[in-house]
């Protein structure tokens, strides 16, 4: 022990004002993002082909949650509750899950370019989806979502099996993921070019870029618990993730059960991603970039970074969904197009000015 | 509390990296581990630090097998600084050092003022106090190494294990770092490349070759002309100064290189 340090030198404990301020900034960002999330979900319910006033939206929500008994046009109420709110909730859960998975994988694999699709999940999901939609697997008994989910798990299993004999390290997982993704993407292309009609091919492309239309409450009941449980599990391991700052060996020397953390967190990230992709398709950009954006705002400690990533991801995806519905009259753009179209310039701004914030 | 290896072997896949290493670290000593590249120093250090489980034999802490102690408890007794660990994360020096408290923290015992005090003390003991709020990536190699040591110290270890701590440092920082480590009130095991450093700072030296521990003793016993020739393949004279410390003087340009040079001079190619 070092009760008596040989070279005494006064060190200021973290200045109360400084540490306090940093804490306040972080808490402020989190609360702000939460308020923003509620606001953006309300916006999502108001905006669309038919614009509904925000007041009506709030009344409808109050009617459903607390039987408030406001007099709302039943058609408006139906649009708000059955279509738009459920859609916004799924978008939020999906954005949160993808951003969270990205943050976790970037920390575990020590790679800034890691994202949830690195594990072959989106590629496998698309293969599963086209197998159902074009090849007719399951003879109509299997939904597109279930096909995508099974495809995602198969691809993840393939990547995991490939990574284990290849050395289990971060490098092995990344390379196995690249190989798995390429293989399943090639399978998807093969099926589409071999068997699809032009219309089918267009539909599949739309799905592959992410598609929230057709999302209803049962999807919320699946997506929301998955996102919340995922967040809680990842938060439980936030200190362990911090310990990976200087690599795997360093984490081990800090008392982290490295193998268990790897298995649990990669499995959680994979399941969250597989569920989200099977509901809404492979929405890109969120899982890769939102964690980096969150790091600029709240730093690299995972206790703050994980909830911040989840919140910012949720807000971002709901906002992107609003834009995708209103940007072209009478036409819904795939949300994956919007996430990258808005996200890339927004991220560029954060990248250039973010340092000032820290 | 003792730290011991008993007939330890460790394999990477099917390849034997170290075999039959037995070693007991004495409390309070500075034990140097020397040996040529690839002699198994790093592997031996990571088994000793409990990071890798031995393939054969036993690694013991306080006469208990490390397997039974558990990683978290182990981290409260052994601090490990690996070779050149770096990060791309933008973190402050204080945050980097604070990671050392990981084995003590849980949901029920969160970060407290006590942890802050330990971090400050550790920073002071490696003379990095004024750097606490600097960003990690702005530090020089020597400063980074000191921060790593401070991080290991916040684990409040009984044993501090350092794997080639002076790599890539200039001579001033090499000596400064080793002097600092020697003054710390912990038991130190350090893999060292520079044999003169081993001679200057170590109480005992363990010499490895071909994955085996071939000699263990005081620097004067281990660092002999014979050993240096047999293990490292260099010719050197050993001088013992009036304080009983040995100094190694290498003979450059001997053996092969000299022979080659002579042949070239006799048959110039230009």
Secondary structure blueprint with pairings:
The complex is a heterodimer of chains A (358) and B (270).
Chain A: H1 16-46, H2 54-66, H3 74-108, H4 121-133, H5 144-163, H6 170-195, H7 198-208, H8 217-236, H9 238-243, H10 248-253, H11 258-280, H12 286-298, H13 302-326, H14 335-357
Helix pairs in contact in A: 1-2, 1-3, 1-13, 2-3, 3-8, 3-11, 3-12, 3-13, 4-5, 4-6, 4-7, 4-11, 5-6, 5-11, 8-11, 12-13, 12-14, 13-14
Chain B: E1 3-12, E2 15-25, E3 30-34, H1 41-48, E4 56-61, E5 64-65, H2 66-69, H3 71-75, E6 78-81, H4 93-98, H5 113-125, H6 141-153, E7 159-163, H7 171-183, E8 187-191, H8 195-201, E9 204-209, E10 212-217, H9 219-222, H10 225-232, E11 236-240, E12 246-250, H11 255-266
Parallel strand pairs in B: 3-8, 3-9, 6-7, 7-8
Antiparallel strand pairs in B: 1-2, 1-4, 4-5, 9-10, 11-12
Helix pairs in contact in B: 5-6
Would you kindly provide a written description of the structure presented here, covering whatever features stand out?
- The complex is a heterodimer of chains A (358) and B (270).
- Chain A has 358 residues and is an all-alpha fold.
- Chain A has a single domain, classed as ABC transporter involved in vitamin B12 uptake, BtuC (Orthogonal Bundle).
- Chain A has 14 helices and no strands.
- The longest helix of chain A has 35 residues, at 74-108.
- Chain B has 270 residues and is an alpha/beta fold.
- Chain B has a domain at 89-154.
- Chain B has helices at residues 41-48, 66-69, 71-75, 93-98, 113-125, 141-153, 171-183, 195-201, 219-222, 225-232, 255-266, and strands spanning 3-12, 15-25, 30-34, 56-61, 64-65, 78-81, 159-163, 187-191, 204-209, 212-217, 236-240, 246-250.
- In chain B, α7 (171-183) links the parallel β7 and β8.
- In chain B, α5 (113-125) packs across α6 (141-153).
- The model of chain B has no long low-confidence stretch (mean pLDDT 88).
- The interface between A and B is large, with 38 and 55 residues.
- Chain B: InterPro entries: AAA+_ATPase, ABC_transporter-like_ATP-bd, P-loop_NTPase.
- Chain B: Belongs to the ABC transporter superfamily.
- Chain B: Pfam families: ABC_tran.
- Chain B: Residues 3-235 form the ABC transporter domain.
